[in-house]
Amino acid sequence: MSQEHKMKPEHEPEDPALGQVPSVLAEGEVTAHPATAHDDVFGEISENGPNYRDVGWLGTVALMMKTQIGLGVLSIPSAFDTLGLIPGMICMLVIAAITTWSDYMIGVFKLNHREVYSIADAGGLMFGKPGKAFFGGAYVLYWIFVAGSGMLSISIGLNAVSTHGACTAIFVAVAAIIGFTFGSIRTLGKLGFPAWVGLTCILTAIFTVTIAVGVQDRPSEAPQTDTPWKSDFKVIGNPSFTEAITAVSSLIFAYCGTPAFFAIVSEMRDPSYYTRSLMICQSGVTAIYITIGTVVYYFCGSYVASPALGSAGPMVKKVAYGFALPGLIVTTMLVIHLPAKIIFIRLLRGSRHLTSNTLTHWGTWLACTFGITIVAYIIASAIPVFDGLVSLVGALLGTLMSFQPMGCMWLYDNWKRGKSETGRGRSMWIAMVVWASFVIVIGTFCMVAGTYGSVVGVVDSYRATGGSGAWSCQDNSGST
Length: 480
Fold this sequence. Notes:
Helix content is 64%, strand content 3%. It is mainly α.
């Protein structure tokens, strides 16, 4: 039997990672007895410290969906405008299929290699110390830029709701303080409930706009005339290569929560339920993306606002951002927590301080979250073309960590097996080798081409606007 099919049956409550038989609390959620348990990543977990293995399968769904769904979903209508409705839908479904397989491989690889906590650990296992350093650095840098983007998104929301009630630089600083405070919660298990709240709020905001554009006379960006409005949506677009690859990159970015899934499965009570949570997450995310992208683009056409929360006019925009703010806060605290956690584990792994409430434990953890927050805040506030730079980092690092490593992980676990396979097993092995290789190749192509498109976009944007000033007070919500 191939290694990707060795995931433990869901009816077995035993978790080998804990080194003992746990007692059942609810379906798929376990706790260990006696009070002290062993984990291959965290070492001894006891009642005297944080429980890093406390995420149930429902909490896993919430955390997965919240790392995927943010205001990035509202770039999908503009991607459809570039590609056309049908090519846009096809590209999205292909990306959804590839990333779902990539996400599945994370769960398989974790069960095969219990010592792996992050994509950095997986890189180290496959490529040695250079791989660990490369993927670890890419992971931290990626989430720092996403955290900076989250801070700016919160400032946009606060500007929209308050009609630019304060200097934008103040709002960004407030966002950084909130992100640090809640991002410093030590375990993902404690972030499960906030993730559900944030997910509910962001979906409420998105669907509010979706419904509003369907019932209004015309989008707010369209010419306000007395003539009847007819959407100019395109079934098939005619973009240049740069425009097309940039649009595809934005669709990939909508699924780029993938590198966070290593940490999530590592903190699950029972990792054998990971696949169940993943299927619910990816099905829900894809259905939401298709619904939002199709409806908003159909009714707005080329006049979809950017971000699309402004497509239904100023009043709906305020209401939508009011709903969205808790979701933006949860996203920001998660993307501060994730890179801080792998640095924290790297510093204290193998030490009793990792799972004990010691001064060293708290000092190291808070230093990690504070450091990530400060770097993200400075980058977000000081770089004049930050929006374009986020797109560049997403195309370069988001794609890099969502495609190629997972193809390599399958090959790492299954390459030697091909020598002993015969008949149907041999054919299946060859097919999977081709698929894993395809994922690596297509990921590399999208990474290189998307990076090129993003660089062109950054240059064009800077030539057109000159960027924004460092620590600017200017309203960034586009309010009129």
